[in-house]
Amino acid sequence: MPISRAKKEAVLQELCTILQEAPTIAFVHFKGINAAQERAMRRALRDAGVRFRVAKKRLILRALAQQQVAGEQPPFAGELAIAYGGDEVAPAREVAKVAKTIEGGELSLVGAIFEGRYLSAQEAQALAAVPSRGELLAQLAFVLKSPVQRLAIALNEVAKARNA
Length: 164
Description:
The chain is of the alpha+beta class. Helix content is 54%, strand content 18%. Strands 2-3-1-4-5 form a five-stranded antiparallel beta sheet.
């Protein structure tokens, strides 16, 4: 059933607002996903602070045409949705994580907008592989703690040798 012109304009305005305000937009291709899988996917994305918006591809393309985005727009074939919100890498990371759990359907990153430029599907997958800020801080703390811990162990062994 076609949607009215007023509804299309409202959706277009919402998409333009999302594209202007979100730090990162992930373009998602989906096909053959049943309702239960979609609810589970949306719940997982929402829990991670990522929003998922399905709209007509023509409306998404029209909203993108109104934005100032550098680079070449990736090709969009089939059904298209956008994921946005959270930190800069959360949309791509969470969609890639959820895509691994989908069985019998297809869910994949077809591109992204990151730091004001288009990313290809391969670049979006690479962005999805970047750990979260919390994980990066934990890794940094471990790296910084390791030399101090080794020094403490060495000093403890020297103290034991003197006392023996």
